Structures are given as C-alpha cells and as structure tokens.
Amino acid sequence: MEKKDANIRPRVLLIYTGGTIGMIRNSETGALENFDFAHLLDQVPELRRFDYDISTYTFQPPIDSSDMGLEHWARLVGIIEKNYTHYDGFVILHGTDTMAFTASALSFMLENLGKPVILTGSQLPIGMLRTDGKENLISAIEIAAARGEDGEPMVPEVCIYFKEKLMRGNRTTKINSEQFNAFRSFNYPVLATAGIQIRYNTQAIRRPDPASPFRAHYLVDPNVVVLTLFPGIQQSLVHAVLNIPGLKAVVLRTFGAGNAPQLKWLKEELKAASESGILVVNITQCQSGSVHMGLYETSLPLLDAGVVSGYDSTPECAITKLMFLLGHKLPLPRLREMMNSNLAGEITKD
Ligand code: ASP
Fold first, then answer.
1. Is the C-beta atom of 95 inside 6 A of ligand 1?
2. What is the per-residue pLDDT for 82?
3. Residue 2: what pLDDT?
4. Quick one: what percent of the chain has pLDDT higher than 70?
5. CATH of domain 224-339
6. Closest ligand 1 atom to the C-alpha of 64?
7. Using CA positions, which residue lies closest to atom 3 of ligand 1?
8. Is residue 62 lining ligand 1, measured as CB closer than 6 Å?
9. Contact 198, 146 (CB under 8 A)
10. For residues 231 and 330, is the Cβ–Cβ distance under 8 A?
11. Which of 23, 65, 126 for a ligand 1 pocket mutation test, highest count of atoms within 8 Å of Cβ?
12. Distance, CA 85 to ligand 1 centroid (Å)?
C-alpha cells in the first residue's frame, strides 16, 4: 500500500446541519440565533491553534434535528462523496435529538468508508459560557484529522463524539435530554476517550476492506414501523400495525432476551405478515444486551413465525439498516440474510 505523508496539513470539512450547538446569543437582543459558520474561526478562536485546513459547509437554513429526514441523509452522503478525496476527515454538527439515527444511517450509506465522519453537537449553545459545544467541536475536529504513524486515519468510521467519548455511530443512543453526557454505546466499547490525551481503543476500531472501494449509497425506503410489545397488548392494535398499506418491515421491540407473550393470535398475525413479504426483526426493549431467540420458550413462536433476530442492535440502527436495505429492493430471503449480517459493526453475533 502507498505510504501517506503524515506531515501534510490535515484537511477537515465541517458540515453544519443545525441544532443547539450552532446557536449564539445576540448581544443586542439577547435572543439565541444560528451563528454563521463561515465565521467559525472568529467564534471559536481555539481552532486556530490547530495546524489544519478547516472548511465549512452550512445547511441553508440550518435545521432542528427533529426535522432531519431521509433526504438530508442523502444530502450529507452527497457532500461527503463529492469531497471525499479532498479531505482527510469530516465533522458533522447535528442536533442531538436524532443524531443516533443519522449516524446509523450514514454508517450503511457510506460503504467501506476509509475516512473519519464524526458527528457531534451540544446540549448548550456554543455561544454560552458553560457550553459543552466547544470541547465537543474541538475534539471532534482533532479526531477527524488524526492519523496513525502510517499516515492512515485513526478512526475511519462514522462516529458520535460527545462528552469525552468517541462511539461507533450505529451503536449509540441518546440517553439524556439535560446532562452533557447525552449519548451511550451500551453494547460496544468506546472507540476513544478524550482526557489529557485522546486515547484510541485501536482494537475496537473498524478498518475498511482495502480490496474494495468506498461506495456512497443514496436510496433508502421509509416503509418501516416500530412495534413495542407490552403486557396486555391487543390483537386489534397489532393487526392494524402489521396491515399498514405499503409496510415492508417491522422492528419488533420485545422483552428481555427477545421474548413475547405466548398468544396464539400474536404468532398468527406475525406469520401472516411474514408470509405477505413483511420482514419482522426482533430487538430487545432492554438498553443493553442481545436477543437470543430460542433461549426461552416465549421466543420460540417468534422463530416459527419467521421473525429474524436483530441481535444487540439499537432501535435507531435496526430502523435505519432496514431502510437502507429496503432501498436496495432486495428479495425477502436476501433481506433476511443481510439483516443477519454485520455490515458496519452494528451487531455482535455470538
Ligand atoms: N432540538 C435540538 C436538535 O436536536 C436539540 C439539540 O441540538 O441538542 O436539533
């Protein structure tokens, strides 16, 4: 492999989509406003101390991440694909509310990624005195630019950096709406921790396949639904959900290690859905741990009904992985096989 020159100034593209981080208090009116990222270096002068080339790209208008949709994911993929060879790494500033969905979706849409794509944001606007935004932004940029001794990027993955932790994007969940420690990766170790130094957990970091190219994907299909089981759930509700016109896949949030009530009608409804071509994926309602179908009697009917295991997938990841795979219009057996495969480090198969 060609050895890269580690002395060239790293180039980072900072993409601002919106969210709390990009707000600043207008000194005259006192109101919070989106700040102009073209003047980023004026607002965060600390960035000048990096010897990096930092360019910025701003969504016009910036959006609250609750409004993030499939078209925005495709837009981000387009920006990264267009600029892929020109930059060493990418930082995406994003509202925290749906950041885990975007990170999960991008991990599939940017296949065989060889460069860091680091999402970050903040709980307090960057213009506020106690903001967490500056540390998140500065460390995310440093991680996006970091190279090993061989000149290769330290973390060629889609990640979320938040409150001193770098996490694999498709393993994250937003866990707190108030504290700075807003994200957790319950089922996979952190990829790096930022203290006095940034310490990388190199064994946990995924590397691209050198024999395959980077490929950007744009097609995603939103015909997915999440169905959460609860004691007392009624057949009419399950029937209505499984018969939504155009529905192609269901993320079924079960109990514990993937268990469901042993109701005859539930098995029949799920079986009918599977037979009509709808893929049902079993993930647990527990934040931590995995589905083990067949471990308890209460999950056997699900296996019989054609439900596939989502292993230790987060809900955000199961939903976006299905959207990504459905976008490829795969036949059902292939779709089942792909849901059972580890595509971007998103599941742990024992
Ligand atoms: N509502 C905001 C958003 O997700 C919250 C944040 O930025 O943290 O866009």
1. yes
2. 98
3. 44
4. 97
5. 3.40.50.40
6. 9
7. 95
8. no
9. yes
10. no
11. 65
12. 30
The string of pLDDT tens digits covering residues 230-279 is 999 999 999 999 999 999 999 999 999 999 999 999 999 999 999 999 99
Does the C-beta of 42 come closer than 6 Å to ligand 1?
no
Q: How far apart are CA 52 and CA 230, in angstroms?
A: 52
Whether 141 and 13 have beta carbons less than 8 Å apart is answered as no
The least confident of 127-136, 194-203, 322-331 is: 127-136
Sheet bearing 117-120, strands edge to edge: 53-58, 11-16, 89-93, 117-120, 158-162, 165-168, 192-194, 198-200
| In the predicted structure, residue 109 carries a pLDDT above the cut 60 | yes
Residue 17 Cβ inside 6 Å of ligand 1? The answer reads no
CATH topology identical between 11-216 and 224-339: yes
Query: Does the structure show a pLDDT above 50 at 3?
Result: no
CA atoms within 13 A on the CB side of 128: 17
Cross-strand pairs, 34 = 23
Question: How many beta carbons lie within 10 A of that of residue 242, not counting itself?
Answer: 20
Domain boundaries along the sequence of the chain: 11-216, 224-339
Rounded to whole angstroms, the Cα distance separating 55 from 39 reads: 11
- Among 16, 17, 20, 172, name the best residue to mutate to test ligand 1's pocket (greatest count of ligand atoms within 8 A of Cβ): 20
Q: pLDDT (tens digit, 9 = 90+) per residue, 122-166?
A: 999 887 889 999 999 999 999 999 999 999 999 999 999 999 999
Active-site residue flag, 320: no
Helix and strand numbers (H, E) in the chain are 9, 18
93 vs 8: CA distance, rounded Å? 25
CATH 3.40.50.1170 assigned to 11-216: yes
What does each C-alpha distance from 283 to 15, 25, 157, 256 come to in angstroms?
32, 42, 24, 9
Q: Which band of pLDDT confidence, cut at 50, 70 and 90, is reported for residue 314?
A: very high
Structure confidence by residue, pLDDT tens digits, 276-291: 999 999 999 999 999 9
